[in-house]
Structures are given as structure tokens and as C-alpha cells.
Design goal:
The complex is a heterotrimer of chains A (about 260), B (about 190) and C (about 90).
Chain A lengths: L1 H4 L20 H22 L9 H20 L8 H15 L16 H22 L2 H7 L9 H46 L5 H7 L1 H37 L4
Helix pairs in contact in A: 2-3, 2-4, 3-4, 4-9, 5-7, 5-9, 7-9
Chain B lengths: L1 H15 L18 H133 L5 H13 L1
Chain C lengths: L1 H10 L3 H41 L4 H30 L1
Helix pairs in contact in C: 1-2, 2-3
Classes of the chains: A mainly alpha (about 260), B mainly alpha (about 190), C mainly alpha (about 90).
């Protein structure tokens, strides 16, 4: 029976990669490639004639810029947040380009399904929004974060603990886990259905029945790949918009 | 040369295969970040973000803004042109209205002239007609008076003669005339 | 989980294997339980958002942004459950 021959591999066997050379593995390669592709796309876009209607690579770059400005910055921070567009744009492009290899055949590994990238991005965002809060509100940022204005004195200790945990600890943690776990779950799903397909095709007993049945997990694999296209975009979008919300909230607490 | 090919082949194999067999260790769990991945990705992201902030984005944005400005100024120019065309049309229409008014005035004046001329001619003709009628009436009156005088004279003669024959005395002509006049006036 | 230790004892698994089997089963329960709340939450949230968008199509952009934010916050709970599943199960 299949159950005997089919065994899900160790979790590390589908996530950890050998070093291509010293301390440089596939995840690092994808991260570097994401940065290089981003730089090249925007470099090429910047070199094209700006006066005519944009097309090709320039159109792509301008659409992404307008997406960040209209879809993220204006919705969460307003006009005063437009200075954050380059940072949010690079964040979005980098995360998206790290997510997308999860569905490209032969690569099929989202770099964000490892803890490293989500964690350092979330820590970077944490440092930035706290820095922005301290810069814009000074020492009042800390008291406002712990005790939002209008809290009764009696509740201050309780609210203080809750707000401190939620603002200082839970935010970067959930930012990390959201991206990491989404991409990891998608990767595991793809691996599962790919392995099921393979197990059915290479079945040694009842081949006439089991081999055609491989179509079913394969169809699911194709569907999930299409779904992961959406997830790759959505997770990059959500990470970026949450960053914008946190920065906007730290800069202008009244919003 | 050969060793380089082997090395490259090894790199590709290492790229497309995950850790397997002995290499797989449970030790760093999937949750634990790996230092090498951390610093490679951190480095590439920071380079990307800094380039984006100071070089790539400003250049792109400048081009976009220049184009928007161009489009906006083209829009403004088009608006100005449209306004100018509208003004021209209004001007033309004003001129047209003035010309129409002028023409109407002239037609009116001509009509007035004609009317006065007609009135004058009509009055003249009427006057002439009245004159002629008056003349004819005077003539007729004169003829009637003459006929009347003749009748008067004749009747007076007849009456005088008749009186003479009846009385043997010739009545004075003043009386005869007065009587005849009275009778005729009756 | 009790049942598993009995099963383990009955099938003659060693202590280590029985522990792994228990971990695997509790991991499955952990993720399943963690998915219930966020599932209801996201369904309610998206349903309400669609209602709002249908009622006021001109506010659709704002509603969509807020909806994604809400989904992100709600989903975090399920994802933490998934991470726990990875941690104790695999």
C-alpha cells in the first residue's frame, strides 16, 4: 500500500539548503537575486525616456510606485507620509521577489519561508517605527504607547502592561510570523502534493489504478501554485501596509 | 579546467537539492534563523533600500513628475486654447449680431422711407382727386345755378305775362321775381 | 492523548516513539483548534466588508484596505497555531 512507501520527509529536508559556497546557500542567493533584480528593473526604468507614455519595464516600475503611493501610503499615512515611499517600495519589491521563487519551477523555494528574512525585516521595521515615534513625539511617545490618552488612572497598570506587550513585543513577532508562516505553509502544501503525485506515479502495486489517480494531486498542485501567486503578492502587500500603519501611527498618533 | 567544471556541476546540484541523508539535522529547527541567511539577506536588502532611497526612486519620480507636469501644462494650454476659441466664437457672434441689427435697421429705414413716400404720393393723389372733384362740383353747381337762373327768368317771364293777361296790368318785375323765388325755394 | 499512550503501550512502542506519536497527534489538535477562531473571524470580517462595499461602492478602496489589515491581524492567531504545529509536530 502507498501508506507504507509514502513518508513525508524531515521538515529540514525541504527547507535547509546546502552551501553553494562557504556560507552562501540558496536562500542567500534568492535574497541577493531579489535585490539585484529590483535594482536592475528600477535602473532600467530610470534610464528610459520619461517624457513619453511609459511602457515595458518603466511601466512596471511606475505602476509599482503608484501602487505604493495610492494603495498604501495615502490610505494609511496621508500626504505627510509620502517621504516613506522609497522605503516601503523597496520593502514591497524585496519581499515579493523573495516570495515568488516559491512558485517558479526548479527553484520552488520562497526565501521568506526561512526565519531569517522575515525576522530581520520585522526588526528593521520595529527599529524604524520606534525611532520615528521618538523623533516626532519625543519622550511622550513612550508614555503614549504604554498609556493611550484617556485611560483612567485605576486601569493604568493593566493597560500599560497590555499595551507594552502589544506594541513592543507582539507587533514585530506577528509581523515576522505572519510572513514566515504563510510562506512556509504554502511551501509545505506544494511539497505535499508534489510528493503525493510522485508517490502515485511511482507506485509499485496496482499501477493501472494508481498511476491515473496521480492526476488528482497534480491538479491540486497546479491550483495551489496559482493560489500561491496570490499569496506571494498579498503577503508582501500586508507586510508593507502594516509597516506603513505602524510608522504612521508612531508619527501621528491622532490618526 | 576539469576541476572547475566539476565544481560548477557541484554548485548546481547543491542549488537544486536540499540537504539530504546525513546532512539533514534536526538541530536548528525550522523556526531558528540561520546566521548566514540573516546577514546575506540583510546586506542585500539594505543595499537595495539605500539605492532606492537615494538614487533609483528619485530619478524615476523626477521623470514621472516631469511627465505629469508636461501633461498638466498641456491640459492648461488646451484649456487656454479652448477659452480663446470660445472668446473668438463669442466675438464672431457679437459681430454677427451687430451686422444683423444694422441690416434690420437699414431695412426698417428703407421701409420707413417707402412708407412716407407712399403716404406723400397717396396724399398728393388724394389732393388732386379732391381738387378735381371740387372743380367738377363747382362746374356742376355753376351749371345748375345757370339752369336755375334760366328757369327763374323763364318762370318770371311766364308769370309776368300771365299776370298781365289776367289783370291787364303789367306786375312789377321785382314782385314777380320775389314770388318766383319764394315758390322755387319751397 | 491518553488513548495514544494506551495505543503506544499496546503496540509496543518505546517511550521515545510514544512521545513522538503523542506530539504528532497534539500538534494536529493544536493547529485544528487554532484555525477555528480565525476562520470564523475572517469569514465574518470579509462578509461584513463585502456588505459595506456593496452598500457604498465609492468607499470600496478604503474598506478593502481596512479589510486586509483586519485579515492580517486575525490570521496571525491561526499562523501562530501553525508555527506551534511545526514546533511540536515535526
Amino acid at each position: 500500500m502507498i501508506a507504507e512507501s509514502f513518508e513525508f520527509p524531515e521538515i529540514n529536508a525541504i527547507l535547509r539548503w546546502q552551501d553553494i559556497f562557504v556560507s552562501f546557500n540558496k536562500i542567500a542567493l534568492i535574497a541577493v537575486a531579489a535585490a539585484v533584480i529590483g535594482i536592475v528593473v528600477f535602473l532600467l526604468a530610470g534610464r528610459k525616456d520619461a517624457s513619453v507614455a511609459p511602457k515595458g519595464v518603466r511601466n512596471l516600475a511606475e505602476v509599482s510606485v503608484e501602487f505604493i503611493e495610492d494603495g498604501i501610503v495615502m490610505q494609511t499615512m496621508g500626504k505627510s507620509g509620502l517621504g516613506w515611499t522609497p522605503f516601503l517600495l523597496s520593502l514591497f519589491v524585496f519581499i515579493y521577489l523573495c516570495n515568488v521563487p516559491g512558485i517558479i519551477p526548479l527553484i520552488q523555494m520562497p526565501a521568506t519561508a526561512r526565519m531569517a528574512i522575515p525576522m530581520f525585516l520585522a526588526l528593521l521595521v520595529w527599529v524604524i517605527y520606534n525611532g520615528v515615534g521618538l523623533k516626532h513625539q519625543g519622550i511622550k511617545y513612550i508614555t503614549h504607547t504604554i498609556w493611550p490618552p484617556g485611560v483612567p488612572v485605576a486601569l493604568k497598570p493593566l493597560v500599560g502592561v497590555i499595551e507594552f506587550i502589544s506594541n513592543i513585543i507582539v507587533r514585530p513577532f506577528s509581523l515576522t510570523v505572519r510572513l514566515f508562516a504563510n510562506m512556509l505553509a504554502g511551501h509545505i502544501l506544494l511539497v505535499t502534493f508534489a510528493l503525493l503525485t510522485q508517490a502515485l506515479i511511482t507506485a509499485e502495486t496496482m499501477q493501472f489504478l494508481l498511476k491515473p489517480m496521480a492526476v488528482l494531486p497534480f491538479g491540486m498542485l497546479v491550483f495551489l501554485t496559482a493560489f500561491e501567486v496570490l499569496v506571494a503578492f498579498l503577503q508582501a502587500y500586508i507586510f508593507t501596509i502594516l509597516t506603513a500603519v505602524y510608522i504612521g501611527g508612531a508619527a501621528h498618533p491622532e490618526h | 579546467m576539469h576541476s572547475a567544471v566539476v565544481h560548477l556541476h557541484g554548485s548546481i546540484v547543491r542549488f537544486i537539492t536540499a540537504e539530504t541523508g546525513e546532512a539533514v539535522s534536526k538541530d536548528p529547527g525550522p523556526i531558528v534563523p540561520e546566521l548566514k541567511e540573516l546577514y546575506w539577506s540583510f546586506g542585500s536588502f539594505v543595499v537595495f533600500a539605500l539605492l532606492m532611497r537615494f538614487f533609483l526612486f528619485p530619478k524615476l519620480k523626477k521623470g514621472m513628475e516631469a511627465r505629469y507636469q508636461g501633461i498638466q501644462s498641456a491640459h492648461a494650454a488646451a484649456d487656454a486654447e479652448r477659452a480663446a476659441a470660445r472668446a473668438e466664437v463669442a466675438d464672431y457672434e457679437a459681430q454677427l449680431a451687430a451686422i444683423k441689427a444694422e441690416a434690420a435697421r437699414e431695412v426698417e429705414a428703407a421701409r420707413n422711407t417707402l412708407e412716407t413716400e407712399r403716404q406723400a404720393k397717396l396724399a398728393e393723389v388724394n389732393a388732386r382727386l379732391a381738387q378735381q372733384r371740387a372743380a367738377a362740383a363747382a362746374e356742376a353747381q355753376a351749371e345748375r345755378d345757370a339752369a336755375r337762373d334760366q328757369i327763374h327768368a323763364a318762370v318770371s317771364d311766364v308769370a309776368g305775362l300771365a299776370g298781365e293777361l289776367a289783370t291787364g296790368r303789367r306786375p312789377s318785375p321785382e314782385v314777380v321775381t320775389r314770388v318766383v323765388s319764394e315758390v322755387m325755394a319751397r | 492523548m491518553e488513548a495514544f499512550s494506551y495505543v503506544a503501550a499496546a503496540t509496543g512502542l518505546t517511550g521515545e516513539e510514544a512521545k513522538a506519536a503523542q506530539a504528532a497527534s497534539s500538534a494536529g489538535f493544536a493547529y485544528g483548534l487554532a484555525a477555528i477562531g480565525p476562520g470564523i473571524g475572517i469569514g465574518y470580517l470579509v462578509g461584513k466588508s463585502v456588505e459595506a462595499m456593496a452598500r457604498q461602492p465609492e468607499a470600496a478602496g478604503m474598506v478593502r484596505t481596512t479589510m486586509f489589515l483586519g485579515i492580517a491581524f486575525t490570521e496571525a492567531l491561526a499562523l501562530i497555531g501553525f508555527v506551534v504545529f511545526i514546533l511540536i509536530g515535526l
